[in-house]
Design a protein that fits this description.
The chain contains 12 helices and 2 strands. It has helices at about 1-10, 50-60, 65-90, 90-95, 100-110, 125-135, 140-145, 150-170, 180-195, 200-215, 220-230, 235-260; strands spanning about 25, 60-65. The longest helix is centred in the first third of the chain and has 24 residues, at about 65-90.
Length: about 260
């Protein structure tokens, strides 16, 4: 807040011509006494894509200093997580990634690994006993060993139904996001969930950082910038929607799976 106030009263980025706390877009005629919201419909084509010629003629929108600062600090926080973890928690990272071995990589490359209908979620008596005797297993998890896990087919059918619904919506709504763009979204989501959200040490440090200095770390910022620099920039809104909602749902699912 001190940074926001300093930027505002220094009138950096014409801060005093716009509202102090706002996510609105403003145009050039906005001033201290009359705030003028940027009319985004004036720069759109009939298919709701941005017309670059109209943007040059009308001008780019302005943002409030608090919103610009929040974008900068959110990206700085994202980078801070990795710098801090690799400098001070590198051993914890090694432990968290102990599963990433040559044997597991070879197993992942075998087609048999993806025969989801064969994974029923049931454990043999020997597997249950091995889990109970493993000192690294959480006591609560040991107590839940007798409960069978959900079959992999449940996750597959949920994924298949979601994929079909999204693909139909993309073309019915004329979203400008192509089918391969959706697959690109899924790859980004998979990497995000695998590298970040499934990492316990990252989640711990993230929550500590949010509690101390930030209302929330927005992991969606990096994928949004990624698509903004790609040929999918016209479909940024749909890309962001799928990234944000899927990341949130994935985090909730991971949390529930870890607890159960």
């Amino acid at each position: 807040m001190i940074i926001y106030i300093g930027i505002y009263y220094h009138n950096t980025w014409r801060s005093q011509d716009f509202l102090f706390l706002s996510q609105q877009h403003y145009d050039d005629i906005s001033n201290f006494t009359s705030y003028s919201v940027y009319n985004q419909s004036l720069i759109l084509n009939l298919d709701l894509t941005i017309n670059d010629n109209l943007v040059e003629a009308i001008g780019i929108p302005w943002l409030a200093c608090s919103y610009v600062s929040s974008l900068i600090t959110n990206n700085a926080e994202f980078t801070t997580n990795f710098v801090h973890m690799f400098l001070w928690n590198n051993w914890d990272i090694k432990v968290g990634w102990a599963f990433f071995t040559a044997a597991n990589v070879k197993r992942a490359l075998k087609p048999l690994t993806y025969f989801f209908w064969k994974a029923t979620g049931k454990r043999t008596g020997e597997e249950k006993e091995a889990l109970r005797n493993n000192p690294l297993i959480d006591p609560y998890h040991k107590a839940m060993v007798d409960h069978e896990e959900a079959p992999d087919s449940w996750y597959f059918f949920a994924f298949a139904a979601s994929f079909v619904c999204v693909m139909v919506c993309l073309y019915v709504l004329d979203s400008t996001l192509p089918w391969w763009g959706l697959i690109f979204v899924m790859i980004v989501l998979w990497l995000n969930m695998l590298l970040l959200d499934s990492s316990s040490i990252f989640q711990v440090f993230r929550r500590l950082l949010e509690a101390i200095a930030s209302p929330g770390l927005r992991l969606v910022m990096t994928p949004t910038m990624l698509v903004g620099c790609s040929c999918l920039s016209k479909a940024n809104m749909y890309f962001t929607i799928f990234i944000f909602n899927a990341v949130q749902q994935g985090q909730y699912l991971l949390r529930d799976l870890k607890l159960a």
